[in-house]
Amino acid sequence: MTKTNVYTYKRYYSDFLDKLGVSLDDHLELNEFEIPINHEAMISWAEENEHRATVKDYKPRPFVSEQSLREAVLTQELGYNKYNTTEINWGIEVQDDAILKDMLGDEAFKIMNLKKDTCLVRLLRYDPGHCIPLHTDSYNGFKDRFGEGKVKRFFVAVSPWDWGHFLQVHDNMIHHWKPGYAVDIPNRVFHVSGNCGILPKYTLTITGFEM
Amino acid sequence: MKTYPIKADLDMYIDPYAAVPQEIIKQNPWHWNPQETNHKDGDSFIYTDASINWFELAEWAVAEANEIRVPQKYWWWDEENEQAMHADESVNHCPIFETCTQWMVQNDYNEHNTRYFKFANHELGAFYEPLRAMFEDKLKDMTMSLFVQPPGQTMPTHVDTFSSYMRKTGEYPDYSKLRRYMTFVSDWDWGHYFHYGNHIMQPWKAGDTWDLVPGIYHGSANCGVTPKITMHWSGKLK
Question: What is the mean pLDDT of residues A7-26?
């Protein structure tokens, strides 16, 4: 592609990945497992408490790490906005985080080898037509609350997989999950998730310190 | 809530099957179960074509799209007239209409998350003849379209109803004769997603060519950082 000028050039994100040495030619082995969840109860709770959810879209925010800020700026430039990245999120409020932890139960945290009292649980809903574009996790919300340490982040499927739902973790395209499917999203690994189907996609992100 | 409300109440049980024309379902029985693992949805891969310089076609398509800047195609719901719109054309009279209501009335697909560039037939310039040659022995009344899907855009899940063919010819499609083939013009990249029924096409290579056998629910998205480019041939089987 011809680099016409700095405003029309479109490969800034690809250049950024190249600079970081991130390549899809390298394979990432996944750590996948299952945890017990009552997905119907969790979705019912979310629907009943929709008014308590935080609705946000993917954009640069002042409190994230410099790399996360750069990733968000780069995606804005590519055409991501509130019309295709809106996320409905339960758990940012402390009482909702506690409710979600209770719904998960001790066994789930034991399987994940996470300290339950210092975990953050977020229930996310991505409606059809929305995604979270390519990014890494900066754990800012978690670190602000609990400080530094060896942080782990897990994706957990809540609603059963449906057509159009996907999660890509580095070179792995993940799909056809069942409720309770869990995968480790390693630190600094690029990932992306989307929904081009007709049903909402409910998932959890669970962040915590290893036991 | 801090942003705009979604259009309709969420429904965990929208049935895509109910929106598909009965002729298609009768002629092309399919499992219609997203959790089905015993399926043949990925069996219609044909070959990786090397007759076209796909890299050159991709570069040409992106340059054309950058020249135009505004994607010609997008789906939206005309609230005032209650019409499902594909760019400036109503599809209320087309067999895709019921699926469109699942997209744009029961869900929130709109002109912001379904945009794509389309270059059809002679708009393909020097590539027209070699592309036509790929399927001229298989299809008659053939039309060709190249789609450039920018990052952040989706093609919501659907069954091919050949509504464009209907709008073009004025004929109700005879699904027993119509066929579509597709080639990936660019290599698979971050966030590029294409599901054909329960088969997830990843990773693909430029030139990978598929027989999109009718009656299978499919869709695509680009949540990545580079355009996703596909080439489509439609027509009546010879």
Answer: 92
Residue tagged 């020097």 (tokens)? B126
- Best of A23, A93, A198 to disrupt the B interface by mutation (most B CBs within 10 Å)? A198
- State the best of A163, A169, A201 to mutate against chain B, taking most chain B CBs within 10 Å: A163
- pTM (predicted TM-score): 0.94
- Is B193 near chain A, with CB under 8 Å? yes
| pLDDT tens-digit series, residues A47-58 | 999 999 999 999
> Is A161's CB within 8 Å of B112's CB?
no
Torsion sign (Cα): B96, B61, B206, A136? negative
**What pLDDT sits at residue B1?**
43
B196 with B184: CB under 8 angstroms?
Answer: no
What was the ipTM of the complex prediction? 0.94
For residue B85, give the nearest of B70, B97, B102, B72 by alpha carbon.
B97
* Spatial CB neighbours of B26, under 8 Å, sequence gap ≥ 6: none
Where does residue A200 fall: left (phi above 0), alpha (psi -120 to 50 degrees), or beta otherwise? beta
Question: CA-CA distance, B206 to B123, in Å (whole number)?
Answer: 21
Separation between Cα atoms, residue A22 and residue A190, nearest integer Å: 8
Split chain B (238 residues) into runs of 10 and give each run's mean pLDDT: 59 86 93 95 97 97 93 95 95 94 94 96 97 96 95 97 80 88 97 98 97 96 97 95
What is the least distance, in Å, from the CA of B176 to any CA of chain A? 25
Contacts of B34 in chain A (CB under 8 A): 160-163, 176
d(CA B52, CA B117): 21
